[in-house]
Design a protein that fits this description.
Layout lengths: L2 H19 L7 E5 L3 H11 L4 E5 L2 H13 L6 E5 L7 H11 L6 E6 L5 H9 L5 E4 L4 H12 L1
Parallel strand pairs: 1-2, 1-3, 3-4, 4-5
Helix pairs in contact: 3-4
């Protein structure tokens, strides 16, 4: 194994052990899927140190992220999922993630700046594809309140 690959292989488990060592319980994991880098930056900055944070910039990246984490035996507790991504819609991403893992307990928060059809959103809730929604632009207070509501 090359020196670089060996170092990379050791970083992730070390990070998780360090994070878990600071708290009596393992840190919860929050994923953010949004193609707006500014929004991702603010959300990550707000969560840093309190949660393990994973990010994806597209729907396809988000599905792969969930597959990778599931393959490692890691759980993602909450996903903040933008509705309008460049490669697919948020409901398509949620559907693909849930189809791949029927036992998924991740709480999915749909985020959007667009006015969505209330009937369509109600259908997403009824199909258990989303657990909550958060309208953009949102304040950090609203974001923190949503996190506390979902993971404590």
């Amino acid at each position: 194994m090359s020196k670089r690959k060996e170092t990379e292989a050791n970083l992730r488990p070390l990070h998780r052990r360090e994070a878990e060592g600071r708290h009596s319980q393992p840190m919860k994991t929050v994923a953010i899927c949004d193609d707006n880098e500014d929004i991702v930056y603010v959300m990550v900055a707000s969560l840093k140190g309190k949660y393990n944070v994973l990010t994806a910039k597209s729907g396809g990246d988000c599905v792969r992220l969930f597959d990778d984490e599931a393959g490692k035996g890691n759980r993602i507790d909450v996903l903040f999922l933008d509705y309008r991504l460049k490669d697919m819609s948020g409901d398509q991403v949620a559907r693909r993630i849930k189809e791949r893992n029927l036992q998924l307990r991740t709480k999915i928060v749909l985020t959007t700046a667009f006015e969505l059809d209330r009937l369509a959103v109600s259908k997403l809730f009824a199909e258990n594809l989303i657990d909550s929604e958060l309208r953009k632009p949102f304040s950090l207070a609203d974001f923190d309140k949503k996190i506390a509501e979902l993971v404590g």
